[in-house]
Each structure stands twice: as structure tokens, then as C-alpha cells.
Task: inverse folding
């Protein structure tokens, strides 16, 4: 038994002697590789940092020069003041898309794009009219239109039936949100809030629950409105008259027309 054990130990020692040089070579290679990585790591770090800085600079917004920005402000101011002559208007000029690569231009003219409205977040066109390459880009701007309107006097939860004490007047940016602001208490008192309002938040038409002016089957007054004239009649409502929504009405001669519920038992039909 002892002789068998001695033979096995000799065999294991022999195997260890044969594979030890391979492990030694592996250890040497790993040590050399590790030293090489440590040696080149500062260079690699510097390269990555340079690439990151370059990407950050490329992502920075490209602002226009002040003389051109002033032209943009004036164009937007003139247009907004024509629409709201009594309001205080402020124009915030944004930045061009940083990915743009524009050819040099000796003369750039701002213009209002077709269909653009000078209200809230919008845009102004910039056209190169004198340069080797003609181009046209769009510059984002924000048009702020300030005027007196009603705001919440205190925090108001949804479902509040508004009273005079719930509201006060303040100067607000009418163009900040799409819903029209309410500037007269007669249009708000007695109405119910559809959503909560924070103290000082403007009251807008979209914050109020829609009213039902009449029920289906009731007799309503029909008013057809055209340029400089109107024609009135009566009909029977086929659908409920929810404020601001389209309603179907059967006229006295049996014809079915559509219009908009605008008041108590009143439907307007635009011509």
C-alpha cells in the first residue's frame, strides 16, 4: 500500500514539473500585458475625453448673432402687436439646431413661415439671400403675450364652484398655454373647475367643466351666421347641446343641420 502511494506521488510530481513552465509563461505574458495596459491607459483616457468634449460642443445650441436676433425680435413683435395691440409682448429668441452646417452667407433675412402663428412657441424662417449657396432654416422663438386676466386667489381643488372670492386679476402670459384665458368674472362665477388650480395660476376655458345648454328633444333657436348678416329659426335638438360641441338639429321643414351649442337653447350655424 505504501509502495502504491509513493508511486502515485512521484507521478503527480512529474506532471507538475512538465506543466509548470507553461504556467510560468502564462504568468509572464499576463504581467507583460497588464503593464502594457497601464502604460497606454492615460493615452486612451485622453482620447476618450477629447471625443466626449467634441460631442458636447457639437450638441451645444447654435445661437444667432445679436443684430440678426434683433431683426427676428422686431419681426415677431410687429406681428404679435398687430394681433394684440393692448398687450405687452416679449420675444425670446432660441437657437438653431446644432447639427446644421450652413454655408457662409453675407445677407440673411428673417421671414414668417407660411401658416406660422406668432403665439407661444413658434418659429421664424431665416433665408440666405446673398451667398454661394441659398439656404432656408427655421429658428425657434417664444412669443409671450401679457395682459390682465383672472387667476386663482388660493389653491382650488377640482370640482370647486367658482365665486368672486376665488378669483383675482393679475397680468398673465396669455400664450403660455393653448386654452384661452378668462378675463371677466361673469364668464367664470358659478362655473365648476374640471381640474385643480394653484394659487396665482391663470384660469382658462379648458379648466372649466363644459355646460349642457339643452337636452335632446328640446326646441332650440337656430342662428345661421354669415359675413354681415344672420338668419334665425327654430328646430328640435337631436343630440344634447354640450358647450362648444357639435349638435344635430332638425329644422321645421324636416332638414337635419349641424351647428355648435353656444348658449341656453341656442345653436349657431356658420355659413
Result:
Amino acid at each position: 500500500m505504501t509502495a502504491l502511494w509513493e508511486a502515485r506521488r512521484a507521478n503527480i510530481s512529474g506532471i507538475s514539473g512538465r506543466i509548470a513552465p507553461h504556467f510560468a509563461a502564462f504568468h509572464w505574458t499576463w504581467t507583460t500585458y497588464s503593464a502594457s495596459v497601464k502604460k497606454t491607459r492615460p493615452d486612451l483616457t485622453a482620447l476618450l475625453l477629447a471625443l466626449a468634449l467634441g460631442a458636447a460642443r457639437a450638441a451645444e445650441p447654435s445661437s444667432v448673432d445679436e443684430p440678426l436676433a434683433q431683426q427676428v425680435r422686431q419681426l415677431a413683435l410687429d406681428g404679435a402687436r398687430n394681433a394684440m395691440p393692448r398687450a405687452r409682448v416679449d420675444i425670446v429668441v432660441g437657437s438653431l439646431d446644432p447639427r446644421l452646417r450652413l454655408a457662409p452667407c453675407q445677407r440673411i433675412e428673417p421671414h414668417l413661415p407660411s401658416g406660422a402663428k406668432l403665439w407661444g412657441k413658434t418659429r421664424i424662417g431665416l433665408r440666405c439671400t446673398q451667398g454661394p449657396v441659398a439656404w432656408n432654416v427655421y429658428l425657434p422663438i417664444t412669443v409671450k403675450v401679457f395682459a390682465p386676466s383672472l387667476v386663482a386667489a388660493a389653491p382650488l381643488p377640482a370640482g370647486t364652484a367658482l365665486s368672486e372670492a376665488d378669483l383675482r386679476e393679475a397680468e398673465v402670459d396669455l400664450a403660455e398655454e393653448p386654452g384661452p384665458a378668462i378675463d371677466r368674472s361673469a364668464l367664470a362665477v358659478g362655473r365648476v373647475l374640471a381640474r385643480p388650480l394653484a394659487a396665482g395660476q391663470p384660469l382658462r376655458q379648458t379648466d372649466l367643466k363644459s355646460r349642457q345648454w339643452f337636452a335632446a328633444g328640446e326646441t332650440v333657436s337656430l342662428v345661421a351666421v354669415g359675413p354681415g348678416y344672420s338668419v334665425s329659426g327654430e328646430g328640435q335638438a337631436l343630440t344634447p347641446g354640450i358647450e362648444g360641441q357639435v349638435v344635430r338639429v332638425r329644422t321645421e321643414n324636416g332638414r337635419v343641420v349641424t351647428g355648435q351649442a353656444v348658449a341656453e337653447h341656442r345653436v349657431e350655424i356658420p355659413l
In short: The chain has two helices and twelve strands. Residues 2-59 form the longest helix (58 residues).
